[in-house]
Amino acid sequence: MKPVEQWVFEMERTLRPDRVVWCDGSEAENARLVEGMLADGTLHRLHAQQAPGCYLHRSHPSDVARTEHLTFIASRNRADAGPTNNWMAPHEARERVFPLFDGAMKGRTLYVVPYVMGPLGSPFSKVGVEITDSPYVVASMRVMTRMGRSALDQLGTSPDFVPGLHSLGDLSPDRRFIVHFPEERAIWSVGSGYGGNALLGKKCFALRIAGALARDQGWMAEHMLILELELPGGEVHYVAGAFPSACGKTNLAMLVSPLEAQGYKVRTLGDDIAWLRPGADGRLWAVNPEAGFFGVLPGTGPRTNPSGLAMISSDTIFTNAAVTPDGVPWWEGKHDPPAELLDWQGRPWDGAGKAAHPNSRFTVSASRCPSISPRWQDPQGVPISAILFGGRRARLAPLVFESRDWEHGVFVGATMGSETTAAATGQVGVVRRDPMAMLPFCGYNMGDYFAHWLGMGRSLSRPPAIFHVNWFRTDARGRFVWPGFGENLRVLLWMIERVKGRAAAEETPIGLVPTEGAINWDGLGLGAAERQMLLSVDRGEWAAEVPEIRAFFDRFGERLPDALGLRLRALEQDLTKVAV
Ligand code: GTP
Ligand code: SPV
Ligand code: MN
């Protein structure tokens, strides 16, 4: 028996399903699954002309987003999970969590879902196998990964796969656990059918488990978009960007250039996860391990994200969207609400509250993206010129600034703050530290993760420049000052000019901020006060941030790299220096 068969055989004994199906990823198999889900109400067919090949799924109302408080790292030593992760002793997981799988698939079908993360045949790709009792998860994994026969072929008789055990259980948050074993490279998830909790290739494997592998093997697994920027004359740059959940990765990756006629083009390689490695040329090379997009619906509209909107016009699974009685999906920001609408739970919408769930999402193949780059499946990846960190900050952070060098860039990433969003359950709009947008996704001690970042910089002779952006600054009336979306190109262009050593910048205590003349503001209709606000660095506000950063750093104790503590002291001194 192959190792994968052995594992499935063992799990069957615990799960006791009525049937076992090894998924081949074929069109016919998918059609069968969809038929079954239409019949039992897991899926609803959408409008044949206006949403061809599209389906609506309504998840359980208590299962609508990642649940970070129910997500655990089960390392032998608590310190290896670090202060920012929930830790569970492996024996406790066996005693508390594993019994929830006992008989969990009685009366259900067990699907074996083999999948590859990364382009097929790429030396950087990795195989995972998810066992699940959710046909919705199977259909989603087929879109989000290279799933089925090709994955089994790539695995062959090798034991080198990440096993992921998933059951819907009874969907109760009281019996919901998402547990990662970074030492054994395994995942258990029970009690949720939603997104990152259940599509185990995504955050569980490609970030938390892969991150631990990457630390050991000298590469990086990051919560990053990847985009391609073409300049007039054909020069091409690749940019990776880490923004926290629901903070703009998909939208930036699919940006439609307002300067297309002048030869500035943007293409998409990935919208959520990047695996990055040093190349023989001393540069950092990136691949997108995913094959699809699981993106935020609200805010996806003709002006904000026209490529995204076109991409999801067919062959898309909509989860927790609103819908017209005749089956056209709708969400806030798509266009004006139609006269009659059912909300995300299928109830007639009275116009109060949100019709679509704030974390409603689309699942669609990357190949449907009109702006997809011809290199998105390049087995070697693409060389990265610049890394962006970004948060959602109503105040404080300027539109953009550049770090002074790699080490300073790591400090900028490590000290990121961002307002929480609907992507995870809990309060929305509260500023929290979210280093490198990885707070919920780092599978080991984050102090060690910072050290790994510093070490990666030392292994690159031509490291990317590192920037910080903030599209979300608001005015006194609470409106976004910066137009965002397509206009973010102007910030990308300043960054690329910086990389090429041409654009002007001013030193500030936090890093290099564009001079006002270095950004192209033409046609944006922003007044002098607004431009000034977008580029200002308020020493007092930043000084107030320092104690919060220090308190965060202090949690890591000895595991915090000295360089970061020294950078914080230097920042504090700079901020308190009287300006001359
Ligand atoms: P995850 O998939 O959760 O990791 O999120 P993401 O980082 O891909 O976020 P996404 O691009 O889906 O954006 C989330 C929300 O922010 C959407 O409602 C967008 O409309 C909004 N958004 C994205 N970019 C901008 C921007 O430049 N300005 C403003 N004001 N809103 C934006
Ligand atoms: C995120 O929350 O960052 C997501 C959605 O990309 S999920 O796949 O649910 O994690
Ligand atoms: Mn994400």
Give the topology, please.
Elements: H1 3-15, E1 19-22, H2 27-40, E2 44-45, E3 55-57, E4 71-73, H3 78-81, E5 86-87, H4 90-97, E6 109-117, E7 126-132, H5 135-144, E8 146-147, H6 149-155, E9 162-167, E10 177-181, E11 186-190, H7 195-198, H8 201-217, E12 220-222, E13 225-230, E14 236-242, H9 249-253, E15 265-270, E16 274-278, E17 284-287, E18 292-296, H10 306-311, E19 317-319, E20 322-323, E21 329-330, E22 361-365, E23 382-390, E24 400-402, H11 406-414, E25 417-419, E26 431-433, H12 446-458, E27 465-469, H13 489-499, E28 505-508, E29 511-514, H14 528-535, H15 539-554, H16 562-576
Helix pairs in contact: 2-5, 11-12, 11-16, 15-16
The chain binds guanosine-5'-triphosphate, sulfopyruvate and manganese (II) ion.
Short description:
With 580 residues, this protein is α/β, with parallel strands linked by helices.
Q: Give the terminus-to-terminus CA distance.
A: 75 Å
Query: What proportion of the residues form beta strands (DSSP E)?
Result: 15-25%
Number of helices: 16
The general outline is globular
- Please outline the major beta sheet: 9 strands, mixed
**Bound heterogens, unique:** guanosine-5'-triphosphate, sulfopyruvate, manganese (II) ion
Low-confidence stretches: none
Mean pLDDT: 97
Structural class: alpha/beta
Let me know the number of strands.
29
What's the gyration radius in Å?
A: 23 Å
- The level of helicity is 25-40%
